[in-house]
Specification:
Blueprint (H helix, E strand, L loop, with lengths): L1 H27 L31 E6 L2 E3 L2 E4 L4 E6 L8 E3 L14 E6 L4 E6 L7 E6 L1
Parallel strand pairs: 1-4, 3-8
Antiparallel strand pairs: 1-2, 4-6, 5-7, 7-8
């Protein structure tokens, strides 16, 4: 019987070690890209999400409501920040289209906001991955 207890204790220890290692590895992952650092939380159904830390003031606000981005197309300068404000009945996200725009990657949000500061000139196309007909473009000069 002591062998059964020993195996159970060993299994608990191994499980705890694996979970601790996974949590440590997740916390140590880094992002070496030039994208602005924005922390957001993924919402549970029926909850709201906003940015978890202060972000630069928006130079442009894009409203996400009525199943569209408004304005859908906009032009800003390098270094300016765009904030998407989510206020629709359905959840949405902002996902860049194409290699250059992959820095745009918000979580799925039903209420709240998400921001990104554009550090490189170019044309950044984006869409809602849940509603592919929702599309927009940010031109950075």
């Amino acid at each position: 019987m002591s062998m059964v207890r020993h195996r159970a204790a060993s299994a608990r220890f191994i499980t705890a070690t694996v979970v601790a290692a996974a949590l440590f590895a997740a916390g140590c992952s880094g992002d070496s890209g030039n994208a602005a650092k924005t922390t957001t939380l993924k919402p549970r159904p029926g909850t709201t999400t906003t940015t978890a830390q202060p972000h630069p003031p928006a130079n442009l606000t894009v409203d996400v409501g009525n199943m569209k981005y408004s304005p859908a197309d906009a032009t800003i300068k390098v270094g300016e920040t765009v904030t998407w404000k989510f206020s629709d009945k359905a959840p949405h996200n902002v996902q860049g289209i194409g290699d250059k725009a992959m820095v745009i990657n918000s979580p799925i949000i039903d209420k709240g906001e998400w921001s990104h500061t554009f550090t490189q000139p170019g044309t950044y196309r984006y869409m809602c991955t849940i509603h592919p007909d929702m599309r927009g473009t940010i031109t950075v000069k």
